[in-house]
Structures are given as C-alpha cells and as structure tokens.
Amino acid sequence: MQVAVLAGGVGGARLCHGLYRLQPEGLSLVVNTGDDFRLHGLAISPDLDTVLYTLAEWANPVQGWGLRDETWNCAQQLTQLGGESWFRLGDRDLATHLFRTHQLDQGLSLTRVMQQLAARAGLPTDLLWPMCDGQVRTKLRLSEGWVDFQDYFVKRQHTDRVLQCRYEGADQIPPTEGVVTALLAADRIVLAPSNPYLSLLPILSLQGMAALWPQLRARKVAVSPMIGTRAVKGPLASLLDSLGHPVSSLGIAQLLRDWIDVLIIDSGDTHLQPQIEALGLQVGLTPTLMKDTEDRERLARVTLDV
Amino acid sequence: MQVAVLAGGVGGARLCHGLYRLQPEGLSLVVNTGDDFRLHGLAISPDLDTVLYTLAEWANPVQGWGLRDETWNCAQQLTQLGGESWFRLGDRDLATHLFRTHQLDQGLSLTRVMQQLAARAGLPTDLLWPMCDGQVRTKLRLSEGWVDFQDYFVKRQHTDRVLQCRYEGADQIPPTEGVVTALLAADRIVLAPSNPYLSLLPILSLQGMAALWPQLRARKVAVSPMIGTRAVKGPLASLLDSLGHPVSSLGIAQLLRDWIDVLIIDSGDTHLQPQIEALGLQVGLTPTLMKDTEDRERLARVTLDV
C-alpha cells in the first residue's frame, strides 16, 4: 500500500516512526515547514528535524525533539558573546543546521538537502518531503498583534492567547512536485496526530492543495491529537478554546472535516462518536497515546487498517 | 606610549598578551586576516580569534589556539552527516563563528564585529583591529599549483614545499581607517614573532601600506620567530628554505629589513648579530621563547624598551 502522511511536531514524528517500522517502502512523509526560521543566520526546520531524528532513532527519548546525548556548549558560549539565547541549539543539532544552511545557501532546495540528510541517517531518500521549497511562515495574532511562530512558541512558551492564525505565503507557494506525486500515488493518506493549526493546516493551505484534494483517490484518515480535553503536548487545547472550537476531538473533527474520511480518536472519548459522525466522518476508536515504540506501531497499524 | 602591533598566529597572540598585560591602554593590535575563510558557510578568522581568546585568557593553554574546555560534538555529528571534516570546529568556538557570520551577513564590518566580541570578552573595544575589512586571501604555490592557505596549512598539514606566496586582493584593499590611525599615532610599532610570509607580509602588502610606512614616526621593532634554525611553531623554517632565505633570524632580517629599525633575536643567536647589523638593522638580544605569562611580559617589555 502506498501511504502518504501529513505531519509536524513530536506526536506526528512518533506516528511516522510507527508507520516507517511497519513499512519502510512506499511511505512518503510530508512535513510542515511553516515553523522554519533563521537564527544566527542558520536555517532551522524544527518539524523536519524532529521527524528525521525520530526515524533515525537519534531523538532524545524524553523530550521527543532534539538529539540524544546532546550538549549545549556552543549555546552557552553564544549567550556569553551576547547572541540570542531564547532558542537553545544543541551542539550536535547544530551540525544539521550548519549542513542545511550551507547547502541552501549554495542553491540546493530544502527537498534536496533533506534527501541528503536522510541518506546520512540511513533512511530512504524518497521518505521525507518538506511540504514546499518556498518560504511559508505560520503567524499568530496575540492581543498585541501578529508574531512569528517561534516567538509565540519558544520565546513566550506558548502561554499567550492566540486570536488568529495565518500561513504567510501559503497562497502563493505550491507543494513540491514530490509531495503532489506522493499524494496522487497514495492509497492511504494519514493526517498525523499533530496540531492542526500549527502543523496540518499550513500544509493544507498551500497553493493548489484545496483543488488537488478531491482528485486524490486515497482514503484519508486523521488521528486526533486530543485525549479527552487535553492535548498530549503543546498548546492545542488553548488554541481550540480561543479559536472557538470544542476542546476535544470534536474540535479536531470540525477543523479537519473537509479533508478526511475517518477520524481516529482515543478509546476514552467514545461519547464524542455520535457528534463526530454527525459531521459526516467515520470514527475509529483506539488508545492514541504513544508511550513506546510498540504504541507507535500499533497506532500506525490502525491508521492503515481502519 | 602609544603602541601598535602587527600580529597573527599563536606566537603573535602571546606577545600581544604580554603587551596587553603591561599596558592595556594605548595598545592597538593589527591582526592578519589573510587566513580567513568560510567553512559550512561560517566566516572564520583564525588569527583574530587566537588573539581574542589569548587576551581574554580563554585560549587552550596547550595548543595555543581554540578555547579551553572545548568539546567537539558538533564536528563529530557534522562528519556523520557528510560535512567537510578536515577543519574541526569546537562547540564553544562555533559560537564565535556563528556570532561573526550573522553580524557580517547583516552588513556589519569585521572591525565592528570584533569590537563587539572584544567587549563581550571584557577587552577594550579599541584594542583589536582586523588589518582590513575587505577580503585578502593568502595563496601558496605548491608543486601542483596555487592553493588556499587553509588547504595548505590544515588540510595538508603544511608538509608541502611552498614555491611562492601571494596575498590575493591586497593590492586593491587598504588597511582600515582604524589601522591607519593607530599606526600614525604610534610611538612604537611592534612586529610580533609571527610567520612573516603568512602573518606579517599580508598586512604590509595592503594597498597604500608601503607609502604610509615611511611617514610613520614610530620606532619599528620586530621579534624574530626563529630560534637557531627552528621556528617555535609551524612551517616557517621550511618556507624560509624553499623561498631562498637563510633558515634563521638572518632570513627574518632579510625579509623585514625595509619595514623595521630593530630586530630582536634570541640570545642564543648572538653569532647572527654582525650579519643582521650589516643589513642596517639594530639588533636586540633576549630569550624569545614564551613558555608562560611571565615570559610574555618580559619579552613585551623588551620590545618597548629597546
């Protein structure tokens, strides 16, 4: 079965890992780049790297992002030199950013750079796809105005109330040819349990995506990142609340209803099934929390079998 | 006394440190940038950093360059990712390069960037002067043709025979205004015990330097980096030999005779005094090996008193 996944963030990376362990061939991971930014001149792609590190089994197992056995000597010295210190770059992680920045500055596409990084990580080169090679930037409106994603997420530690999201540039930048090909070829499209506002909608907002979507023959299955009224990680509950959706998998269903056939929700949320079905979606019920590799594989299996 | 120093490399940095300890005010260190290069997109200034780290007392005391308590995790990871690994960047050292590269890419001059780094290192901001803000590149002709300095020095570990040196761009790039001002104001100009071919002549080859030199009122004193027939560090002996100069302080005297009034040579080299004086130079005799901070201060004192 040809499978394409839309993903971003730690939860998304974990499901990608489960799918990769089930079927390393015929898998295309389309990853959000709306959070990408430059720091000290370095091109940083947080979601791509989280997926890369997770699949290479290089990721820090506790925090889910960054590299295991990481050290922070460069960041510490940079602080002493008066560099920006709100986003701490690990010493090993820096190698990825240096490699990427140098290749991008020499004119290679992000797609091509990630293929090289994937190869070096022992992964197939047709696995990891940046959603686009242009610059889409997720912006959030807080009470004091629009800010960049990293400003909201890291610098302010996502404590502000978000009043609006937009994906700057998305209406003018199409998905890459590789992404379109993967979506057209897919028998199954999986929307990973990633924050819809911050990871999935940036991908779905790309130029031409709304027109492409109905042409795709794949069955489209999303895994809700909500368990009860809580997100496994990050500010999703607060975003659902401030942006006017129910703080539960029902909110996720409302957000994604035009894009999916099936929503997989946590088995503790059975009570939401009738309301989600009323939106025209099929519901899958299964434990959705991924604590270990077995959980990842089991949930991945459900997304393929449902 | 206003003192200007021309320097590059570890020996130069050590004498600069001695001078700085004697008189932190009224001191201008003009540093070679002919070895500067880009690696992984990062702007690296080896001689400036060696002087910065040595004066800040951050330098690795054994190797003389780089930072103390350095780690190499980024370099190790970069090798794994397939990046160039012939020049290993320490994790802490990387912070300097990231800081500099980012500031340069935003349009600041190297002079201005080094002022900021000096300030962060607790040094005066009018102390450390890149010889120029343009791009002069030391090139060496080996049997197979011209190569970049770092190619010769690090990648090939300076084992090749050098047939010729040139300082690409030097004839079109003047010293900075700060350098010219410091030289004009100086009562004493010290040419540090640095490799003349690789550190001093790049500075002296800058556009307008030959015309400026006779206008300078300062007494000009060089310290020879040769002790007997050996250089304290690096490939100087081999360069003197292949480029047709005596492999001793006499060779240094021949190279620098048009630029200095006094050459300080090691007290073990008394026998060279008549030949050096025959070139029209005054000779100073003193132990020139700098093993510790006291040696640095003592030698610095000689350069001021001679």
Number of strands of chain A: 14
> What value does the average pLDDT of chain A take?
95
Radius of gyration of chain A: 18 Å
CATH overall fold name of chain A: Rossmann fold
Total domains of chain A, how many? 1
Strand content of chain A: 15-25%
**Helical residue percent of chain A?**
25-40%
Major sheet size, sense and barrel closure of chain A:
7 strands, parallel
Q: What's the arrangement of strands in the largest beta sheet of chain A?
A: 5-2-1-9-10-13-14
How far apart lie the N and C ends of chain A?
Answer: 13 Å
**CATH top-level class of chain A:** Alpha Beta
Helix and strand content put the structural class of chain A at: alpha/beta
Biggest interface between chains: A-B, 30 and 30 residues
Oligomer: homodimer
Instruction: Sum up the overall morphology of chain A in one term.
Output: globular
CATH architecture of chain A: 3-Layer(aba) Sandwich
The residue ranges of chain A in which pLDDT falls below 50 over 5 or more consecutive positions are: none
Please provide the ordered H/E string of secondary-structure elements of chain A. Answer: EHEEEHHHHEEEHEHEHHEEEHHEHEH
**The CATH homology group name of chain A:** CofD-like domains
